Amino acid sequence: MAGKESIRIAPPEGKLGVLLPGMGAVSTTFIAGVEAVKRGLGKPIGSLTQLATVRLGKRTEGRTPLIKDFVPLAGLDALEFCGWDIYEDNAYEATRKAAVLDPMLIEKVREPLEKLHPMDAVFDQNYVRRIKGPNVKEAANKMEKAEMLMDDIRCFQQRTGVARMVMVWCGSTEVFHRPAEVHQSLKSFEAGLAKNDPRIAPSQIYAYAALKMGVPHANGAPNLTTDTPALLELARERNLPICGKDFKTGQTFMKTLIAPGLKARMLGMSGWYSTNILGNRDGEVLDDPGSFKSKEETKLSVLSQILQPELYSELYGNVFHTVRINYYPPRGDAKEGWDNIDIFGWLGYPMQIKINFLCRDSILAAPLVLDLVLFLDLAHRAGMRGIQEWLSFYFKAPMHAPQLYPEHDIFIQLMKLKNTLRWMRGEDLITHLGLEYYD
Ligand SMILES: NC(=O)c1ccc[n+]([C@@H]2O[C@H](COP(=O)([O-])OP(=O)(O)OC[C@H]3O[C@@H](n4cnc5c(N)ncnc54)[C@H](O)[C@@H]3O)[C@@H](O)[C@H]2O)c1
Fold first, then answer.
1. How far is the CA of 9 from the centre of ligand 1 (A)?
2. Which one of 19, 169, 317, 371 has the lowest number of neighbouring Cβ atoms within 10 Å?
3. Is residue 169 lining ligand 1, measured as CB closer than 6 Å?
4. pLDDT per residue as tens digits for the range 277-292
């Protein structure tokens, strides 16, 4: 039974443009995957928007619609893609080079991929040091580059007739940098763009252009990007939803599954050693210590936020946590991760857990991009603005209000996501109390 009034959500009429800075492994696996699913060549495994249900009301009511039937999401046929990259390869060539998908499958979706040519990128080698490409915009300053991106977005909109758009940063990980004076307000940020301030990263120029054009933004990498007062101010001013940072796939996904379980049982931990070998372009970029530092920050924070050593010092006050990524070309996108977890139980007796995850990075990331596109568009049509904490489920370092700590426990994140959908539709939120069944 519906408890409250639902909020007004504009219907998903017309086409939805998907703007992708970075047309590497994740972007191309996502685009080719959507084209394959549309043709019945594969299933959208890993995507909540396509496969998951949401329970409504009491367990006795038996109401569990698919999420996509419960909230008005854009359909896959409505998606139109465009992207930017420093390399000139069209999406077909880039998908082949990423070597994630089977060449036979790629051939079957060759036609739409071949039509997709990357637009010239806004790039700065100081932020991504290991790669270099010819497809780069030249301009007198960063404000001019932002305007060129806005022109790109306008042209895409006119050419395809999309009714709405969403941007998801799928570009390389930029070097670690902290918010500076220039990021503290929109005014100082815009002055910084005009003055070519070196502390403004390319990903922030894309985000600024998107938000100025009324386009919601998600950040799939650990870069600072919209996680600054200036761009948050712009998002709020334009009534736009934003979220980030760093897709939660692979090893960190495993951490957010296992650590809450150990903590739920009050089992102690003395150390967690994580190492990876990865051979794709992402691995090459992360071989640079500056880019790795951005990644390390998001990967390390997860564990301490879940375990809360400040509340449970006997159990988690002294956890030795290390994360390594080693670039190893033969492995390509098929990352291999090893975890050794040292835990202790009753009377302090030690135990160990070993995990060897042979994963496929982009196969895990692609459904996340799809969900973020569809949910951000939904949030936009529902009039939600600023940081979308209910989308923390998808990120290693979820953006959050300054007075809060981020929620990393994937099961709490999932409950929050589904409760937000229930709230949107005026359904009762589910607390899992359930005492009434036993009266
Ligand atoms: N695959 C995963 O599981 C996963 C998980 C979390 C985060 N990420 C992040 O997602 C991003 C994409 O990953 P990927 O595996 O596709 O990497 P990739 O190296 O295959 O693709 C990134 C692409 O971005 C391009 N690029 C770099 N700077 C750019 C700029 N300023 N403008 C336009 N294009 C630019 C590069 O040329 C490259 O083609 C990376 O930052 C990665 O760390 C990936």
1. 32
2. 317
3. no
4. 988 888 888 888 888 8
